[in-house]
Structure formats: structure tokens, C-alpha cells
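Model it.
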Amino acid sequence: MLAVAPGPDNLYVLSQSALHGWRTGVAITLGLCTGLVVHVAAVALGIAAVLKTSALMFTALKLLGAAYLLYLAWQAFRAGGAQLTIERQPRQALAALYLRGIVMNVTNPKVAIFFLAFLPQFVDPARGPAGWQLLALGGVFMLTALVIFCSIAWGAARLGGWLHRSPRAVVAINRLTGSIFVLLAGRLLLTEN
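Modeled.
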């Protein structure tokens, strides 16, 4: 349910897959899941606890994340009704989208705090070292997110044919995506540790 709930990650996968095809969505998804590896490892190693207790670190990551969301919003607004390239994405473009997914996920302090608050609830000291359990639980979450986000990418890409015939729809989706990123950046800036 957590991966299905609307958030910046799945909304970005949805909009980009609808505009540019499933390969784009899968590249972003793989980047997002790679970013989750960083958060899970941070929780398992106790680094996220430092983020939760250090107002300076939390604020720095929050500002970085909001700035990145605003950058993505600017790109979406600037894209307007650009010609769709659904059939093929160049290898470099997919690599850039993969990196964008990593940056989006890693710079979101809410994800780190979520993992810090969520995963430890399921650790059972009787089942062995907590670090290994946290890594296993994080792996299950990543696999679930991968399946759900790839499903979103595939489903949204099916809309691509309709979008290819409707430049106005492309403009509307780009504006909606940009607006969502501005709102999410604002919400992130108002988040307290």
C-alpha cells in the first residue's frame, strides 16, 4: 500500500512513462529502487538516526531535496508540448533517468525518516542481528516498489498512443507534473524533523 500511495516517486514514474514510454518509467524506477538501497543501508547502519537527531543535517538534506524537486518542476514546465519519442530512448537518456531516480530518492529526507520509523517495528531480537533483519525487510520493500512502479510504468505507457495524438494532453501532463513537484517541494520545506 505504501508504494501505491501517491507520492513524488510514483507520480513521476506515471507522468514520464505516459509521455515517453515504459522504458523511461523502468529506468526511473530502477534509480528510485537504487536510492532505497541507500536509505535501507543507512537505517541498518544507524546513520538515519543521526539524520533524525541532527537538525542541521536534516535541514541540509531537506533543502537539497526541495531544490531538486523545483528543478524537476522547472523542466516539466519548460517541456510544454515537446514532441513525444515513445518508440526509442537513447541509452544515455535512460542512464540519466536512472541517475535522476537515485537523486530524487536519496535527497528526500522523508524517505530516510520513514524507514527509520517503519522498518525497526518489525525487527525481532530473537531472530538474529537487527542489521540483517533491516536489510531483509528493506529488500522486500524494494522488491514490492519495483513491481508496483514497473506496473505503473507499463500501464501509463499504454496511454502513450493517445498522448502521441494529443499535444494538448502532453502540455497538460507536463504542467500537472510541474505543479505537483512545486507542491511537493513546498511540503518538503515545511516538514519538521
